[in-house]
């Protein structure tokens, strides 16, 4: 599945029109499917449709007609000046004898549901004046709001804060990156030819169908030396903060993702855990001989982070570089050696590498991940909500994950999990997007059971369940499809 920008969606729309596809059909399906979602969420509750003069408004006018035909009370306020398909949608509604009043008169009452059909992908710049006031009034109403295609105002502020949003044709960037404004998310197919939706120049939304075939198979004859062994190098002994648990959590992540054996290379005196690991105490960052197929490096390394990474380079193995191993010097050394390496920065670490601010990275994570992959020539996992994986010109946005994951150590678990998939033989981009998906799914499963207050080691422990659900094709979609 692809993630569209408003421009890409418009292109798909135009190409359908060039093939002779009547765009009015797209609008009809959009409005009809949105009416279906309306009925599923709000039943018989009367609707107040607020329609702009563009095609988003047109979708709202179609929805109004379908609700009316189903006997649901509808009041319609529309801006003047419809053209093209939106004008036809208006005429079809008027033919049913519905009164359409000016948008300036919009008002509503307790018990009604607002349908936001003001602006969709055609919005240019932030809403101001009357429209900003209208959106603020809608949000303050405390009535349920169903947004058509996009909550009006997105990606800028002010914006409608919707109860639910029906995306038409494909998901657009704000649906995943400004999820909070969208409420419950639904994706409506509106009859666009499938090949127009599969534009490989667009970022991917990682799905069950794409990731399931990547899962390493475990033959009956498997033994602990045949399914991927991981070396974890990290930890620090000296002045300053100690993240002593970080490499141990990475080891847990690797084991729970299916590693056959985990070797832990740690500073002398470091607490040895988990019981299942093989320990290699060293006085300072160095690489003892290890029989492993991949490495996870840097967790809890503090001032030793880069030294661990440079020592690990000599192994010549696929490597996950995390936390304090994330420096441009280290990245450059891995690129020069032509080693498959996966960098796993959060927004703060990515900002440091890119010479910008965490706010700038968070403002456009797709671009930040792409830029960092380009600058380093390596695979980048930009952790966040959602996490983005970038390699060359490939971008993948991960739809799983929960705010309950915002707790110390979950990133370390992720690094170990990705290393286990590298050790099992997956190429870096595949190991990264599969690892991120399962880690997010583990968070989703736990959050549903326990709510907020997860511990990172519990996320590791939930990885086998996440893996099993993916294997069995039973991953719940993070959005409804209609
Ligand atoms: N993709 C698909 O396959 C399909 C897409 N469909 C639907 O079409 C939608 C896109 O429709 P669209 O292109 O007509 O734009 P839309 O969002 O209605 O807004 C345009 C209006 O907003 C105005 N305006 C802009 N900025 C403004 C501002 N800052 N402040 C104030 N006004 C501003 C602008 O004014 P103008 O600049 O023209 O004066 C114009 O009037 C899409 O989201 C989906 O719902 C479906 O029907 C079927 C298939
Ligand atoms: N709000 C959120 N929604 C989804 N995932 C989140 C959220 N907050 C954090 N995460 C995930 O939790 C992990 C945190 O990693 P990181 O910041 O490196 O933590 P640590 O360094 O403590 O291990 C990442 O995988 C990130 O994507
Ligand atoms: K809208």
Number of strands: 20
Radius of gyration: 25 Å
Instruction: Please identify, by name, the CATH architecture of the largest domain.
Output: 3-Layer(aba) Sandwich
CATH hierarchy, class of the largest domain: Alpha Beta
Largest sheet: 10 strands, mixed
Note the gap between the termini: 15 Å
CATH superfamily of the largest domain: Ribokinase
Structural class: alpha/beta
Number of helices: 18
CATH topology of the largest domain: UDP-N-acetylmuramoyl-L-alanine:D-glutamate ligase
Instruction: Assign a percent range to the helix content.
Output: 40-55%
Uncertain segments: none
Overall geometry: elongated
Which molecules are bound in this entry?
ligand NPW, adenosine-5'-diphosphate, potassium ion
Give the number of domains. 2
Average of per-residue pLDDT values: 96
What layout of secondary structure does this protein have?
Layout: E1 3-4, H1 6-18, H2 23-42, E2 47-51, H3 55-69, E3 74-78, H4 84-94, E4 100-102, E5 113-117, H5 129-140, E6 145-148, E7 164-168, E8 171-172, H6 173-177, H7 179-182, E9 184-188, H8 194-197, E10 204-205, H9 208-211, E11 229-233, H10 245-256, E12 261-267, E13 278-282, E14 294-297, H11 305-312, E15 319-321, H12 328-337, E16 341-343, H13 347-354, H14 358-363, H15 365-376, E17 379-382, E18 388-391, E19 394-397, H16 410-423, H17 428-450, H18 456-471, E20 480-481
Parallel strand pairs: 1-8, 2-3, 2-5, 3-4, 5-6, 6-7, 7-9, 9-20, 10-19, 11-12, 11-14, 12-13, 14-15, 15-16, 16-17
Antiparallel strand pairs: 17-18, 18-19
């Amino acid at each position: 599945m692809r993630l569209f920008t408003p421009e890409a969606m418009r292109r798909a729309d135009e190409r359908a029109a060039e093939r002779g596809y009547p765009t009015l059909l797209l609008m009809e399906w959009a409005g009809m499917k949105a009416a279906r979602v309306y009925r599923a969420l709000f039943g018989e509750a009367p609707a107040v449709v607020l329609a702009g003069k563009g095609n988003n408004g047109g979708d709202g006018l179609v929805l109004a007609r379908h609700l009316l035909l189903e006997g649901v009370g509808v009041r319609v306020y529309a801006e003047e000046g419809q053209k093209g398909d939106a004008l036809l949608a208006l005429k079809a509604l008027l033919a049913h004898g519905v009164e359409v009043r000016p948008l300036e008169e919009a008002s509503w009452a307790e018990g009604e549901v607002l349908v936001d059909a003001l602006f969709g992908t055609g919005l240019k710049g932030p809403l101001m004046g009357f429209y900003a006031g209208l959106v603020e009034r809608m949000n303050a109403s405390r009535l349920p709001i169903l947004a058509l295609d996009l909550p009006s105002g997105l990606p800028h502020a002010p914006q409608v804060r919707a109860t639910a949003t029906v995306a038409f044709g494909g998901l657009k960037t704000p649906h995943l990156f400004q999820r909070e404004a969208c409420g419950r998310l639904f994706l409506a197919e509106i009859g666009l030819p499938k090949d127009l939706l599969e534009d490989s120049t667009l970022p991917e939304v990682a799905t069950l169908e794409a990731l399931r075939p990547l899962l390493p198979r475990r033959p009956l004859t498997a033994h602990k030396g045949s399914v991927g062994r991981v070396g974890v190098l990290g930890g620090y002994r000296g002045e300053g903060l100690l993240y002593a648990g970080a490499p141990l959590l990475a080891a847990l992540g690797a084991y729970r993702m299916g590693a056959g054996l985990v070797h832990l290379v740690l500073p002398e005196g470091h607490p040895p855990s988990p019981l299942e690991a093989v320990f290699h105490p060293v006085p300072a960052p160095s690489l003892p001989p290890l029989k492993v197929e991949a490495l996870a490096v840097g967790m809890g390394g503090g001032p030793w982070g880069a030294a661990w990474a440079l020592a690990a380079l000599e192994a010549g193995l696929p490597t996950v570089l995390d936390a304090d191993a994330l420096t441009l010097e280290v990245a450059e050394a891995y690129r020069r050696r032509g080693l498959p390496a996966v960098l796993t920065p959060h927004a703060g670490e990515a900002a440091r590498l890119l010479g910008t601010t965490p706010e700038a990275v968070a403002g456009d994570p797709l671009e930040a991940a792409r830029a960092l992959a380009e600058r380093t020539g390596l695979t980048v996992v930009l952790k966040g909500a959602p996490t983005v994986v970038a390699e060359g010109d490939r971008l993948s946005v991960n739809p799983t994950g929960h705010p309950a994951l915002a707790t110390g150590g979950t990133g370390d678990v992720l690094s170990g999990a990705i290393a286990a998939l590298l050790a099992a033989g997956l190429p870096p981009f595949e190991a990264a997007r599969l690892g991120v998906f399962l880690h997010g799914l583990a968070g989703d499963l736990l959050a549903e059971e326990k709510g907020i207050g997860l511990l990172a080691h519990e996320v590791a422990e939930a990885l086998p369940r996440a893996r099993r659900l993916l294997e069995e094709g039973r991953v719940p979609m993070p959005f409804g499809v209609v």
